[in-house]
Predict the 3D structure of the following.
Amino acid sequence: MYVEIVFPLSLDQAFTYSVPDELNDVVQVGQRVIASLGRRKQQGMIIGIKSDPPSDFTGKLKSFENIVDPVPVFGGKLINLLKWMSRYYFTPLGKVIQSAIPSDARLKKEIIIQATALLHGSDEFTRFIENHRVVRMSALKRKFGAEIALTRVGRLQRQGLLELENEFEFKGTRGKHYLVVPDLGRDSEIPTNARAQQRAFDVLNDFPEGIALDKLKEEHEVYMPIIKKLADRGLVKLQEVEPDIDPLKDYHRPPPKDIQLNHEQQIAYNEVKRSIDEHIFTPFMLFGVAGSGKTEVYLNATAHALEQGRSIIILVPEIALAPQIAYRFQSRFGNIVALWHSGLKGAERLWTWQQIQKSRFRIVVGARSAVLTPLSDLGLIIVDEEQENSYKQQDTEPRYHARDVALVRGREEKAVVLLGSATPSLETYFNLSSGRYKGLHLTKRWEKAKPPLVDLVDMGAEREETRDYSNPFSRKLISAIHETLENDKQVILFQNRRGYAPVITCKDCNWTMACPHDEMSLTYHKIGNKMRCHFCDFEAPTPSSCPECRSLDLKFGGMGTQMVEEALESQFSDVPICRMDMDTTRGKGAHTKLLGDFARGQYKILLGTQMIAKGLDFENVTLVGVINADSGLHFPDFRSRETTFQLVYQVSGRSGRGEHPGRVVVQSWMPDDISIQCATRTDVKLFYKVN
Ligand code: ADP
Ligand code: ZN
């Protein structure tokens, strides 16, 4: 028997090895193995099994050394998908495979160093190696520092004095979580000199019911060895528990509704259901205006796939930004739903992944990498808001697009792929009109909600008339805000630039302050009084004079969320306002917290960047204001018109989602632009036709 193995190296090639006799019954595609490649051992993965050696090979093939995983990490269909990704995105297969394994489930490489001759060293470094005979690189790095260890070992190896070998082991954490429960009232048994144990026990005093080990480490700096000692004394017990990985803890949870699908939803659901039963790959595009009930179709299709014993992946742009949809799946399907999100830390991610492998989770709701999770018997993949550019992985290999990968995975698994959007990307619209995707249409918002009234304000004309050149708000928007607040409803305002002012320029010589790394203009942040590059995070102090001509006449241009917030605070002085942008949501869980507080009514006005445009559903919001609709039109991106259209259209859909009619005020300097026109008239067809 022979196997093909790829290695997680920049080598776009598979190697054939023979299988050691005793492993003939054990080898499977998707297992990791240790095999020697060149002079060293490497870890690799079996991607194929054959009964014959390659025809052009005549000698005797090496056999690999050992199998790491008794059960394959990936099934054959997922391996096929990873092979496709490798070809399509020009990334070596070994690297694609590595990227699909959570880092805590990866093998840790350790370099083992052995002296082959007398080193005749008189210094500490060589004596250390000689005394130990076999040394681990990590030990040398700890003792002498990484740089010294690497250069000295390299030099001695080139002189032929050392031999190096790779060894692989699992990383420390195996995804176990413990609750530490103290047995209070027995502290007299700790010896007086065991200060650390006493301190740990004092901390535990405050948690008679027990506390998670992770929390003890993070918040109280009490670590496992001390806990072990207390456990040996019988003072604490360790209980294995499931990790607490719910990103929606702080989210305001509306009660689930009892829902009867309307006629259009029923048609869409029936089509999807039939394709699930037929067990053939079918791509659908669910084209539905905001609030038309797409999520209800997703939920019903998911329930049906589950009944058929199939598993389901739901891709969302980002769970923290759109908690509603994840929450609706959780509340309907309970503890078989895994939330795969960016806040998962090493051990939690590993645990979740293992539970997916063991089929304890049958539904995965998550951002783009959820498309690669090892669910078995996949029957349905849903891609919500398929046009979102966060589905594209930009900066690490493989640079894949999760929607496209979802389609190929669907093909491999003979599953249904359901793309959903009110404003599909142009390529998806094309695939829909050319018949590659089957179209499903939801044209009506659910019965009680009426389409919002949209006002388009020409800001150029507004300023001519009012002669007020600094107020970010038009008269129409101001009166609409007052009216909404008087009715005890909430307002969402949208300004797609964070910071205070996006540019600073010299009035005398036209100098503008740019980032020394990438030449993007620096944004002034009033909070912290800094100039910041939003591209690379470079920071500089705010200049008080022009470095070119010494003029003191510097002026801020453009308008960021901080400036809008300031204007709001002065014009609506006793209204609680919440600003949501990258600067106010850095901490873990900050998004969900702010959105939850807004949903609970603690704020009357929510002001934010594009991050608030995605999938928000607040019953009490009846006014949406877009401060500057065309800010995205000037970005040097071939999609800028498309994304402007999608953004303005989506934001408009945020208003009046409950039983109250909604209103939208869109301010623009280019009110005649086709993307603004189509978005404010909610004419999707026209937009796609002209493009
Ligand atoms: P979308 O995902 O298209 O934006 P949702 O599925 O979130 O729309 O539906 C919008 C709102 O309408 C939700 O509050 C949902 O509970 C409600 N809804 C959807 N379909 C129905 C229905 N058939 N009957 C009653 N309410 C519905
Ligand atoms: Zn100047």
Notes: The chain has a mean pLDDT of 87. Residues 257, 259-262, 265, 288, 290-296, 446, 617 surround adenosine-5'-diphosphate (ligand 1) (CB under 6 Å).
